[in-house]
Amino acid sequence: MTAGAEEAAAPAPVPAAAPAGVARALQLSLVRAPAGAEPCAQLWAGLHLPGIASAAQLTQLAQLAQRFTPRVSLEPPDALLLEVRGSLHLFSGLAGLKSALTQMCETLALRPLLGFAPTPLAALVAARAGRGLEITTQAQLVSQLAPLPLSVLRWPAPVVERLRNMGVRTLGAVLRLPRAGFARRFGTAQLARLDELTGRAPELRGIFQPPLRFRRRRELTCEVENHAWLLAALAPLLRELEQFLRARQAGVMALECRLLHRGGQVTPCRLELAAPTADARHLEELLSGPLSRLKLGAPVRALELRARTLLPRAAKAGALWQPGEHGGASGSEAHLLIERLRARLGEGVIRGLTLLDDHRPESTWTFSPPPSPAAGRATPAAPSLSARRPLWLLGAPQPLAVRGGLPQRGGALTLLGEPERIEGGWWDGADVARDYYAARDVHGVRLWVYRERGAPHGWFLHGFFG
After folding, report:
1. Which of 29, 131, 370, 411 is 20 to 30 Å from 98 at the Cα level?
2. Same-domain pairing of 176 and 229
3. Which residue, among 334, 313, 315, 314, has the nearest Cα to 323 in the 3D structure?
4. Which pLDDT does position 149 carry in this prediction?
5. Which residues, listed in sequence order, are joined to residue 305 by a DSSP beta bridge?
């Protein structure tokens, strides 16, 4: 998107004619190359792609380019722009970055023409010229662009023809024309493009925002019923998913694979994870379990892979020591175990426990999905429980025999210490009134027993201490 500029010799702010709210609607980034900065504050890479097939391929390339920088801009129908100043040290300088960008394009069978300059438009025209220009300072900008033909600006044909009739055939020649006369003859829009080219005026440019959901479909060359072949056909889609996630530094906790049959029938296959991941091999290993258990009513003609919710995936440094050595922490073994058991045994087999804020022993916990790292950070602190309570509770309290007012279990129980009184529960219809005791039986086993405060004052066993 290009904004017009009024005739002026000094750098101008964003034009007042720009629509209100356009920055918020299109998520625009204000780009300005400061004159005289050595080296310049920004460096843009222009990728001109003469053989690109479609807008979808350009979008796919923009998604791949986000591994270099988050500031990627589309220039339909055949170019991309990337702000790469902060990325140079990650690729061993400009030469390493050029090599990496070329390899990225070659994965889509494209041969890019590259150009580098302090302003986006200058990088774009440098790439279109196909001369491999690398303009890294503001002082070099005009002199390096001067020999380029006017065609690299892609101005309307009547404007270019009138300039040629005047003997103006290069960028250097058009930049030497008087500004006031140029604006009267050709309009302020073309003058604004020249100011953006040289960094005299800011440029409003939309920043590419990738889709937040992943959805890919693959048509099979023949109908398939073999589960191993289906998994092999899914492998390329999983690799695309990995690239998609790594470009966004994200992971998935749930994955859906849809098997499409003749007549529009669909067989779903869902995978739940214990921790966010972007590893295609790991996902392929886990998908093999639920996929092999599917009963196919008809041969499969196409596959569709969906990932609806993306979660941030922060890289973590490994521990210096192995688990158990000098206090070394454990890694992600628990999450990997949960995922493998889920994949092999099915959903609902693996469950976690969650503490509830309730003082009644049988109401202080409930079953829940296995914990994940994200959920673990967001879970509120568990309610504090008395140290006198055991972890091993019975599913239902067992009545105890009573002799002489004392509970019996293979003999008389010895009560230890003072009782803990627990009352309440009228709000959900499960009202209790109990006095709990720690007790020891004739074999030395420590028990947790209680006596009902209401008639007939029965004694019950509710748990065991370790």
Report:
1. 29
2. no
3. 334
4. 94
5. 216, 257
Same domain for 202 and 219, yes or no, is no
Please state the φ and ψ torsions of residue 254, each to the nearest 5 degrees: -145, 145
User: Domain range holding 230?
Assistant: 214-312
Same structural domain, 30 and 175:
yes
Distances (CA, A) of 181 to 7, 11, 97, 175: 10, 18, 42, 12
Long-range contacts of residues 14-19, Cβ cutoff 8 Å, at least 24 apart: 14/202, 14/204, 15/192, 18/204
pLDDT tens digits for 120-140? 999 999 999 999 999 999 999
* The pLDDT of residue 372: 59
Domain co-membership, 189 together with 83: yes
The sign of the dihedral angle between the CA atoms of 163, 166, 170, 173 is: negative
Q: Could you give the residue ranges of the DSSP H alpha helices within 40-198?
A: 55-65, 93-106, 120-129, 141-145, 157-165, 171-175, 179-186, 188-198
Model pTM score: 0.50
DSSP symbol at 89: G
Judgement on whether residues 234 and 128 belong to the same structural domain of the protein = no
- Residue 74 has which token pair? 């589309």
Residue 28 is predicted with a pLDDT of 42
Please give the DSSP secondary-structure letter assigned to residue 71.
Answer: -
Weakly modelled stretches of the chain, pLDDT under 50: 1-38, 374-383
